Amino acid sequence: MSRDSTKREKIARILKHLERAHGKRTWVSSGPCLDELVYAMLSQNTNMANSDSGYRQLRRKFSTWTQVMNADVRDVQRQIAVCGLARMRARRLQALLRRIKEERGALDLQFLATLPPPDAYDYLMQFHGIGPKTAAYTLLFSLGVPMFPVDNGILRMAKRLRLVRAKARDAEASRTLESITPPKKVYALHVLMFTHAKKMCRPRNPKCGECALLEVCSYGQRRMRHAPPSELEIPLRKRPVILSRWMSDGLSNNNGDDLATPSSDLPRVGFRVQVPLRPNPVRAG
Ligand code: SF4
Q1: Taking the CB of the first residue and of the last residue of the chain, which one, N or C, has fewer CB atoms within 10 A?
Q2: Based on the domain organization, do 84 and 131 belong to the same domain?
Q3: Last residue within a domain, chosen from 85, 113, 143
Q4: How far is the CA of 188 from the centre of ligand 1 (A)?
Q5: Are residues 17 and 156 located together in one domain of the fold?
Q6: Cβ–ligand 1 contact at 201 (below 6 Å)
Q7: Which range of residues forms the domain containing residue 107?
Q8: What is the DSSP letter of 129?
């Protein structure tokens, strides 16, 4: 059996386990392609809460992308300030919109659905500030093109599950995962791996003991073999009993009070020695 077919089988098992653990996921378009692209651009190098908030504020202020394109750059900058690097993002966003308008005559990217996936990907990648993850994310979520965006969590999990090389970067991991995942399952696997990486396969202290993927994860199995026993499994350590103390109990001045256990509870093994008092020597007169 070739290496790729073994990995394909492993992917099928992983997907089955993940669906059982987190539920099935079916692709539904997240919105127009240009909207998704702008959202993906705003989510670079920031967390989800900030990118959500920046995007919502931008849409509230400008109802169309034409308005964003023609607005004063400082006005755009103000709306997306919460995402950080606002000046750079605002300039890139307006440059992208102008270029799409020039090339296509309209601010619309739905035509990408009609292109072969590699052409659609290359089209997005030519814009300044759009990398492999942003392009793949836009095509997958908006148009259902089977591209596998790889973020830090998915990369970490794919390495632990030995689906990609230990030294693979996100672009390589994305290509590998695309090649071994059936196109119709790419969306479900991406979303489920993203969820699982956040909840269970965390960077530190992954929850391997509770993980549904333990049977296919040699990294997790090794961790479990070397894990310290839980508190309940650790036998209670008894204090060593010093027999010599018991033996000398009968001779002890403080009657064995230096022992943790009261001397009355201990078996009396020793014996008491009675030393007779000596009379004072009488001097001979
Ligand atoms: S067993 Fe552990 S390392 Fe493997 S996928 Fe699950 S949480 Fe991650």
Answers
A1: C
A2: yes
A3: 143
A4: 18
A5: yes
A6: yes
A7: 33-143
A8: T
Q: Does the C-beta of 197 come closer than 6 Å to ligand 1?
A: no
Domain annotation covers residue 136 = yes
CB of residue 38 inside a 6 A radius of ligand 1: no
Same domain? For 183 and 168 the reply is yes
Domain assignment present for residue 282? The answer is no
Q: Structural domain tally of the chain?
A: 3
Instruction: Please tell me the distance from the alpha carbon of residue 125 to that of residue 95, in angstroms, as a whole number.
Output: 14
Return the ligand 1 atom nearest residue 206 CA: 7
pLDDT, one tens digit per residue, over 173-227 is 999 999 999 999 999 999 999 999 999 999 999 999 999 999 999 999 999 988 7
Residue 263's pLDDT band, with cuts at 50, 70 and 90, is very low
Q: For residue 200, which phi and psi values (nearest 5 degrees)?
A: -115, -50
Task: Please tell me the number of Cα atoms within 13 Å of 98 on its side-chain side.
Answer: 11
CA distances from 126 to 37, 131, 139, 175 (A): 13, 9, 14, 18
Do residues 49 and 92 share a domain?
yes
